[in-house]
Amino acid sequence: MHRINVAEAAPQGYQAVLGLEKYARTNVERTVYHLVKLRASVLNGCAFCVDMHTRDALAEGESSRRLFAVAAWREAPFFDERERAALALTDAVTRLGEHGVPDEVWDAAAKVWSERELADLLIAIATINVWNRIAVTSRTQPPLDV
């Protein structure tokens, strides 16, 4: 059962997060953007976001094979060095825990992404984690009629 509609209850807060989303969508490579959004959503168990980002990626031409492999990206041969670095950073940022982002994860990302690209990627990862937490906490469900 859906708990709350954050967009209605706190429209200014919702618009602020939406602003981050629009920035990330505009400034991160589309393929990587979709992979990052999907990976964080899988890790956070956000059915709404997994559904939405999978559908969006498919609509923009991403292969279903690569999307399925996001769940096991470390073992899958379908991702290039930049995508792997972005996925590793997504894992580390999403699972901050007590240890933060390990230097080896950051250094691998910094090797293949410019400072600006890293900043934009970090904003995208942080933003999907905000959306995941809103959707999971509010029990937002994916639409059944799509």
Tell me about this structure.
The chain has 146 residues and is mostly helical. The chain contains 8 helices and no strands. It has a single domain (6-138), classed as AhpD-like. Helix 6 runs antiparallel to helix 7. The longest helix is centred in the C-terminal third of the chain and has 24 residues, at 115-138. One of its GO terms (molecular function) is peroxiredoxin activity. Residues 13-91 form the Carboxymuconolactone decarboxylase-like domain. This is Alkylhydroperoxidase AhpD family core domain-containing protein. Keywords: Oxidoreductase, Peroxidase.
Rg over alpha carbons:
15 Å
Poorly predicted runs of 5 or more residues: none
CATH architecture field? Up-down Bundle
Give the overall pLDDT as a whole number. 96
Helix segment count? 8
Sheet of most strands = none
Overall morphology: globular
What's the total number of strands?
0
CATH superfamily: AhpD-like
β content, as a range? under 5%
Quick one: CATH class?
A: Mainly Alpha
Report the span from N to C terminus: 20 Å
Order of helices and strands: HHHHHHHH
Count up the domains: 1
Secondary-structure-based class equals: mainly alpha
Q: What's the helical proportion of residues?
A: over 70%
